Amino acid sequence: MTSATYQSTLLRLLEERGYIHQLTDAEGLDALAQRQIVPGYIGFDPTAPSLHVGHLVSIMMLRQLQRAGHKPIVVMGGGTGKIGDPSFKDEARKLLTTEIIAENVASIRRVFERFLTFGDGPNDAIMVDNAEWLDKLEYIPFLRDIGQHFSVNRMLSFDSVKLRLDREQSLSFLEFNYMILQAYDFLELSRRAECRLQMGGSDQWGNIVNGVELARRVDGTQVFGLTTPLLTNADGTKMGKTVGGAVWLNEDQLSNYDYWQFWRNTADADVAVRLRLFTDLSVEEIARLSALEGSEINAAKIALANEATKLCRGEEAAQAAEATAAATFSGGGVGAELPEFPLPAEGIGLIDALVGIGFAASRGEAKRLIAGGGAKLNGESVTDEAHIISGGAEIRISSGKKKHGVLRPA
């Protein structure tokens, strides 16, 4: 089916904005979404104190589910996070303690409150932790009642497992159980919250299909699965991976300005896709912005940065970041949101300043940046790695054309 043939508001919305890659039963889900409010879930394993932009398609998909009048269920993987999803990973995740997982869950919760409306209403979002049921499972009854429905032969055929084995990389029995537990999550949510839809990235297709089949075999319940396309940049690289590391959603992990700047630096060829996926702008406005060419496309990038930042960090954060960018790039000045590092009265070495403000991960990386002409002070390149920055006055320090900071007198 295509967006032209979908009858439900839900699938029309998801299709026109580019969220749909695979559906287990398009006609069945389309019909269900016309008849009733569909509770749908996505799971997030709390492996760090913050999610990153790689999770943002999933978060936005829950937002679109709610915008279409349906009920989002956010599942925190307090249980599955103790194992770690092996899908397409080269090696096993580091096992986290129960205490660290609980801290990560508490830290991550804040982000969802900005994207979703939580409450007790029919289509208000709810958040649950799969540790509520997974931690209570008894091994022998679980094997007998649930394990019998899984074929090891079939599990080995899924790409997420097969690729790991083909590369002769170890896959522990612990990790191998992950797909069974995720399928059980769907069954449990179907029973507890009448959940009828699981969504996720394309790498989750096998796990989602397992859950759909388990609900049918055990309870005779019809549930559905939907995956999004693998999101890459126009050059084929994975979105969200930058030289500076992950683009975190929490403010305490990444500044509002750096978050805004990530979106502002979107390549021309990626603007249209990102506007559809990561903003609430109408498709008509997105079409207008996407048609801009030459230097005018910068207006589309600024709109993208403002809208994406507003959703994740708030209106004030977006406005402040835009003002900082305008002062820094257009006026050649120093904006209020730029990262800062203290400038001692006796001065500081250029290498130490670059490392201290976070523009280089090591002294060696700082030296390479300087040698390549990428280190600048007040807009002028400095190629002497022994250069000492004099104290006493505020100085703008830059790495290339897009990363800027302030050295302020201590």
From TrEMBL:
GO terms for biological process: tyrosyl-tRNA aminoacylation. Keywords: Aminoacyl-tRNA synthetase, ATP-binding, Cytoplasm, Ligase, Nucleotide-binding, Protein biosynthesis, RNA-binding. GO terms for molecular function: ATP binding; protein homodimerization activity; RNA binding; tyrosine-tRNA ligase activity. It is found in: Cytoplasm. L-tyrosine binds at residues 41, 178, 182. The keyword Plastid does not apply. Homodimer. NCBIfam families: tyrS. Catalyzes the attachment of tyrosine to tRNA(Tyr) in a two-step reaction: tyrosine is first activated by ATP to form Tyr-AMP and then transferred to the acceptor end of tRNA(Tyr). This is Tyrosine--tRNA ligase. It comes from Caenibius tardaugens NBRC 16725.
